[in-house]
Design a protein that fits this description.
- With about 260 residues, this protein is an alpha+beta fold.
- It contains 7 helices and 14 strands.
- A hairpin with a 5-residue loop joins strand 11 (about 195) and strand 12 (about 200-205).
- The protein is globular and about 50 Å long.
- The termini are far apart.
């Protein structure tokens, strides 16, 4: 019987002794079908006790007490929340990006097709976790997060590294004219991010669009690591809301030591 790992890491971030991070698979938890098994989302209909046990396992992997793990109420926005030392973990900010410079405070975003991005400033020791669905992507939430890190914490592009976790690939991500219209407004030469497949349907490249924001801010290819996984196509490993409908959520987390 094949076994699957519960936790994955980016090589570039694993080499930084001042932080711990992970992105999770759908394996290694206690949730029952259709959330089998390492579901971290408490908003998808799973048993609360199962989600709590799964979240405890993530906290243990990060070597941090559960009360110091910050999740968000993700609303597909461009809202960024800065996690301070006195943050109450029971309060879920309405945000799709979390930023912190406080050691011992983990920040986590949840996905099941959207693009999960971790950012770390290797000089100022500031980290961010960004959830970029198509709405957040065309609202430039990633670029705005990078700008906030620069303006508040004096982060510079040359000092940053980024990791992008499993997300839906362009070849299976179908969208309508509404998405393309927003993309046309958000990006110069937006046609490089989509392919028309019918009169009203397109394949949209969420990953490539978010790479655009990283490069626009000044990060080079050598500073960015991709997981290489498609959440939709690789059902053995990942949750996919597009594929399954009712399903769980993976976590992408980072914490300063």
């Amino acid at each position: 019987m094949k076994t699957y790992p519960a936790f994955f890491q980016f090589v570039n971030m694993a080499q930084q002794p001042w932080l711990t991070h992970a992105y999770t698979s759908r394996h290694g938890g206690v949730s029952k079908a259709p959330y089998h098994s390492f579901n971290l989302g408490d908003h998808v209909g799973d048993e609360p006790e199962a989600v709590a046990k799964n979240r405890l396992r993530l906290a243990e992997y990060l070597n941090i007490v559960p009360e110091h793990v910050c999740y968000a109420n993700q609303v597909h926005s461009d809202t960024i929340y800065m996690v301070r030392e006195n943050h109450n973990h029971l309060i879920l900010p309405d945000a799709d990006a979390l930023v912190t410079d406080r050691p011992g405070r983990a920040i986590v975003i949840l996905t099941a097709d959207c693009v999960p991005i971790l950012i770390a400033d290797t000089k100022q020791h500031v980290v961010a976790a960004v959830h970029a669905g198509w709405k957040g992507t065309v609202q430039s939430i990633l670029f705005k997060t990078l700008n906030l890190m620069q303006s508040v914490y004096q982060s510079h592009p040359e000092d940053m590294i980024a990791g992008i976790g499993p997300c839906i690939s362009a070849s299976v991500y179908k969208v309508g004219n509404d998405v393309i219209e927003k993309a046309e407004q958000a990006f110069p030469q937006a046609e490089r991010f989509y392919t028309r497949i019918s009169a009203s349907k397109f394949h949209f490249d969420l990953l490539k669009a978010n790479l655009y924001w990283l490069h626009a801010f000044g990060l080079k290819k050598t500073q960015i690591e991709l997981s290489g996984y498609c959440s939709f196509s690789q059902a053995d490993y990942w949750y996919s809301a597009r594929r399954e409908g009712r399903t769980g959520r993976m976590g992408t987390a980072i914490v300063l030591r």
